[in-house]
Structures are given as structure tokens and as C-alpha cells.
């Protein structure tokens, strides 16, 4: 028999977890969100990029206009090498606007999580629980039990792990597979690190208008600079001497050592702003390893499922990691809602849930839909970072002389647009299409009038 009190436990209250809360709330599915930090609004971390595929579904959730108010549109990407010589501009963002009717936008984690948190329905706020670090997940006859470090425990039907690259949920899933001698066993360390990133936020300076984007490319190191209204974010990607699967924590001394090696490099033309200048005026900064990879198994026995960085990790050069996490939420919740609605229709019980076999099938369908595009996106992000850091002489040549040709950029962008157009949207929400360009979306939205376009 199916469950009569179907509840989803979301572990992780970052952007992906909060987006999941919105999707579940609008589907009428009971949920709680467990977040290990003391606040759901994140004050630290590099900026994120919103691209059309995620902006479209955030619009379905009624969030797009507010997100636009606290973000800046991106235009042309200006590029130069370590000596400050121009490498030509990139028009990816202009083509996005042409194809889908929206420029990508840069937004701080603080503003993104604030919008996602504060816009949740008031009657769901008590379901968002901070200071809840997960210590164990066990299965029960009808679902799961999640235990936290503070001794509290929570029972539910399924767990969605949206708790990042070093996912405790993924670790629990692996332990359950070991305990049950299952072949669905993930690697203990599934992600390979080839680069580390120093991100720095500093006040917007004269000459850096909102939306300004500069990149500096060269052997073993590349930078990205995104200017917002009040602050600018600099990201430095440094190639490691040797790739590693091990996690590494860095100190402020490590940050200063990196700046010591590369601080002379320009972030804008004419040495007007260098890495050292930006770091000296920093408001916030952090040095982290950039893991890459896709986890082999995304779910366990119809009880646990992974989304976002818990399932796959991208280098951030293309801004694809967060956006793919949002689309994970779309694909996963679509499948869960379909099974829940079928169970409720069959049982006539408003809180009914599907049988375990149906949940297993839903999780498998979600993974099948998402895995191929995620693998492609992860590979593309890694290639972009390798190109910008001149991993070999061929990549250096392509970066210097081929990618600056706009007709090639348009061709590559049009190929990507056809893949973007196939991105799923929420199929249980009534909404108007807000992003319209020259490339039609393969999955039309269900309009409020009941029709589709």
C-alpha cells in the first residue's frame, strides 16, 4: 500500500534546496528543509549566474521579477592575456538574449538566497529548520529517519540531498549500499579537483559599470570579473600541480600566497586594476578547490535521491553548476508530483503518497532525464577552464585566434541553444511564458487559461 502522510525531507537549504521547497510547496506536498548553517540567507560565497533555462522555471515559481531587481544583466565578455593584450570579445550573452529573450544575469548568493527564502509561503516557514547538521540517515518500513548532530530526528517518506559537493546525504547513501551489499555503490570520493579558485568581493570602482565582464587568460591561471551595482566579484582559477580526489581546506595565508604569485596580473586593461588591488580592497574572500565529476548512482532504494552539487560538480567558469541544479529540481519534482497525484487520485486521500516501487521508478526516470545533459555540461565547463588556462599549445592557439571569431561563436552558441531549448519546465504549474526569443522551447508551458503555447 502507499503512504497516507507523504513527506519530503530536503537536506540543504542553499539555492537548490530552497528552490526545491518552492516547487514542493506549489505542488501541495508536505516537506521540511534541514540546513546546517544558522541562517538560510548566505552572506559569503562567489556570485552566481542566472541563465535563461533556470530563469524560465524560476519565473514559473513567481520569482523572476524580484530576482531581476537584485541582479545585473551581462553583456559582452572582454578578454585579454596575462600581458594585457586583447584576445577579442565573446558574445555568448548577446546570443542568449536573441535566442531566448533574456540576458544572463549576475547575482550574489546573499540576494539569491534572500529572495528564495523570503518569498516562500508564510505557512511553510516553520518547515525550514536551521542549525540542523545531519549525522545519520536510516530507512524505516515506510520511509526514512534523518538524525541530526543536536540529537533531533525527523521521519519522512523520502530524502532529497541538496547539501553540496561534500554531501552528508551521499555519504549515508553509500553506507546503506555497503551495509546491504548493494552493487549501487558510489565512490567515496567521486569528484576530481584540477583547479582551485580564489573568489574576492570588493566595492564597485570607477569605470566598472554594472554588467561589465572581463577575463584574463594565460598558462595555468585565468580570471573572471563580474561588476554589479554595489560590488564586483573576481574569481581566479589556478591549475593545481597535480589533480587530486582529496578535499583541501585553505587559510588566509594560502590566499595571500596565491595573490603573491599572481597579484601583478591585470583584471582590466592598462593595469588599471590588478589582482592585488582587488584583493587589498576585499570585503569578502575565499579559496576553495573546484571539484568536477558526475556521481554514478543518484538514488538509493526509493528512499534517497541527490540533486545539484551532491550529484554533480562543475567548474564554475560557465556558471552551469547552479543552473543545472535548478533543472534537477524541475525534473525530480515533476516525477514525484506525477506519482503523488496518481496515488491521491486512486486513494481519494489528500495526503496519500505512492508505493515504494513508484518512487523507485520516479527517481530512475529523473536520473535518466538529467544524466546525459549533466555529463555534457560538466565536460563543457571543464573544457572552458582548460581553454582559459592554456592547458596545452592547441588550447592556447584556439583561445587566442579561433574563439575570437564571432561567426564561430554564433555557430557554437546556436548548437548550445538547441540543447537549452530541450530543458524541462515544471509540468504541473500554470504559468505564462516570460522568455521568448527566436528559438522556441521544446516543452511549452501550461498556460493559466489551460492551453499551451
Automatic annotation (TrEMBL):
Keyword Oxidoreductase: yes
SUPFAM superfamilies in the record: FAD/NAD(P)-binding domain (SSF51905)
Cofactors (names): FAD
Name of the featured protein: FAD-binding domain-containing protein
Similarity-based family: Belongs to the paxM FAD-dependent monooxygenase family.
Domain FAD-binding: 7-173, 290-355
Superkingdom, taxonomy of origin: Eukaryota
Keyword field: FAD, Flavoprotein, Monooxygenase, Oxidoreductase
Amino acid at each position: 500500500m502507499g503512504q497516507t502522510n507523504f513527506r519530503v525531507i530536503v537536506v540543504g537549504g542553499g539555492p537548490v534546496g530552497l528552490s526545491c521547497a518552492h516547487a514542493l510547496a506549489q505542488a501541495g506536498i508536505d516537506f521540511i528543509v534541514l540546513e546546517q548553517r544558522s541562517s538560510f540567507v548566505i552572506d559569503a560565497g562567489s556570485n552566481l549566474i542566472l541563465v535563461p533555462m533556470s530563469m524560465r522555471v524560476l519565473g514559473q515559481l513567481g520569482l523572476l521579477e524580484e530576482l531581476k531587481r537584485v541582479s545585473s544583466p551581462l553583456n559582452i565578455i572582454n578578454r585579454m592575456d596575462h600581458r594585457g593584450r586583447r584576445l577579442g570579445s565573446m558574445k555568448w550573452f548577446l546570443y542568449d538574449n536573441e535566442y531566448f529573450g533574456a540576458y544572463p544575469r549576475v547575482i550574489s548568493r546573499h540576494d539569491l538566497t534572500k529572495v528564495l527564502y523570503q518569498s516562500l509561503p508564510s505557512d511553510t516557514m516553520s518547515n525550514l529548520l536551521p542549525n540542523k547538521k545531519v549525522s545519520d540517515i536510516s530507512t524505516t518500513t515506510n520511509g526514512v529517519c534523518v538524525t541530526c548532530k543536536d540529537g533531533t530526528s525527523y521521519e519522512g517518506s523520502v530524502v532529497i540531498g541538496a547539501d553540496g559537493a561534500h554531501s552528508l546525504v551521499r555519504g549515508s547513501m553509500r553506507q546503506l549500499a555497503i551495509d546491504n551489499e548493494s552493487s549501487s555503490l558510489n565512490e567515496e570520493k567521486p569528484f576530481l579537483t584540477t583547479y582551485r579558485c580564489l573568489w574576492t568581493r570588493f566595492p564597485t570602482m570607477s569605470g566598472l559599470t554594472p554588467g561589465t565582464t572581463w577575463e584574463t587568460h594565460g598558462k595555468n591561471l585565468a580570471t573572471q570579473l563580474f561588476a554589479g551595482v554595489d560590488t564586483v566579484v573576481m574569481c581566479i582559477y589556478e591549475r593545481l600541480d597535480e589533480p587530486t580526489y582529496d578535499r583541501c581546506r585553505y587559510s588566509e595565508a594560502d590566499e595571500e600566497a596565491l595573490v603573491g604569485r599572481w597579484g601583478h596580473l591585470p583584471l582590466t586593461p592598462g593595469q588599471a586594476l590588478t589582482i592585488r588591488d582587488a584583493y587589498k580592497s576585499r570585503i569578502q574572500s575565499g579559496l576553495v578547490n573546484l571539484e568536477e565529476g558526475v556521481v554514478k548512482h543518484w538514488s538509493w532504494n526509493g528512499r534517497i535521491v541527490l540533486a545539484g552539487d551532491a550529484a554533480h560538480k562543475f567548474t564554475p567558469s560557465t556558471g552551469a553548476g547552479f543552473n543545472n541544479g535548478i533543472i534537477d529540481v524541475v525534473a525530480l519534482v515533476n516525477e514525484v508530483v506525477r506519482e503523488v497525484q496518481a496515488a491521491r487520485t486512486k486513494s481519494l486521500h489528500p495526503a496519500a503518497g505512492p508505493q515504494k516501487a513508484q518512487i523507485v521508478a520516479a527517481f530512475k526516470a529523473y536520473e535518466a532525464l538529467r544524466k546525459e545533459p549533466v555529463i555534457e555540461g560538466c565536460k563543457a565547463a571543464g573544457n572552458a577552464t582548460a581553454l582559459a588556462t592554456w592547458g596545452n599549445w592547441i588550447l592556447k592557439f584556439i583561445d587566442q585566434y579561433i574563439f575570437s571569431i564571432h561567426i564561430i561563436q554564433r555557430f557554437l552558441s546556436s548548437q548550445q541553444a538547441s540543447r537549452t531549448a530541450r530543458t524541462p519546465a515544471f509540468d504541473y504549474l500554470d504559468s505564462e511564458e516570460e522568455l521568448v526569443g527566436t528559438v522556441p522551447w521544446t516543452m511549452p508551458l501550461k498556460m493559466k487559461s489551460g492551453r499551451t503555447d
